[in-house]
Amino acid sequence: MHYEILGCTEPDAPTILLSAGLGGAGRFWEPQLAALETTHRVVIYDHLGTGKSPAELPSGYAIDDMAQEALALLDRLNIERVDFMGHALGGLVGLQMALLAPARLGRLIVINAWSRVDVQSERCFRVRLALLQDSGAEAYLHAQPLFLYPADWLSANHERLLAEEAHALAHFPGAHNVLARIGALSAFDIDARLGEIATPTLVIASRDDLLVPYPRSERLAEGLSDARLAVFDYGGHGLTVTVPDSFNASVARFLAT
Q1: Per-residue pLDDT of the chain in tens (257 residues, 90 and over written 9)
Q2: Cβ(216)–Cβ(115) under 8 Å?
Q3: Cβ-contact 145, 21 below 8 angstroms
């Protein structure tokens, strides 16, 4: 998989691995990099089958496979232990890693994620899949921001979103891979196993998230053995992009403890 190592170069610098959501691109974390690079060695990567990590994903592809791929990346880089931050699907990867290899994780940050998919999320993904299958990638990508960002932010950032849409269309991983990744996140269910995860965890949610209702994050915080919850009133599903300063400050406080 394609990866980048950024930030601190000191051998004893703490390392944080960042895992993006459905799109899978490491550069999704651009609004967080400058803040993290001052204190951490930062590893970002393009998930298998996305961006600069081309592959045709196999039948039955699951979040467990994505977690195993992230662990294999750490092995490849000779990194024994990391902090981990994941957005939505990336958060599921972190939760699965905490079950598979708890000794590899120092702290865990999960953003707008879940232990079991919500019916509202399923509704949104059915709509997105129908657009992809019936109208094609262009329609799918044009609608995507509607599920990610608040309406006022969409209006104020129209030209930026058009440019991002064109870039995403030029680098679209193919309908097969998108279907496989949505299938994986829809099938993920560790609700009965949350108590097994002892990794100190910051659960972040947005009250105005259209895609993932914030009670799913409340459920995570209640079920995990060692978790704290931060709920933002504004920011939408993509609050890492819409309110980066407030988001970064919340993360910095957690990582400093």
Answers
A1: 999 999 998 888 999 999 999 999 999 999 999 999 999 999 999 999 999 999 999 999 999 999 999 999 999 999 999 999 999 999 999 999 999 999 999 999 999 999 999 999 999 999 999 999 999 999 999 999 999 999 999 999 999 999 999 999 999 999 999 999 999 999 999 999 999 999 999 999 999 999 999 999 999 999 999 999 999 999 999 999 999 999 999 999 999 98
A2: yes
A3: no
Can you read off the two tokens belonging to residue 101?
Answer: 């290899």
Is the Cβ–Cβ distance between 64 and 94 less than 8 Å?
no
Alpha-carbon span 64 to 131, nearest angstrom: 27
In angstroms, the CA 56 to CA 32 distance is: 29
User: In terms of DSSP H, where are the helices of the chain?
Assistant: 30-37, 63-76, 89-100, 119-135, 137-148, 151-156, 158-170, 175-187, 215-223, 239-242, 244-256
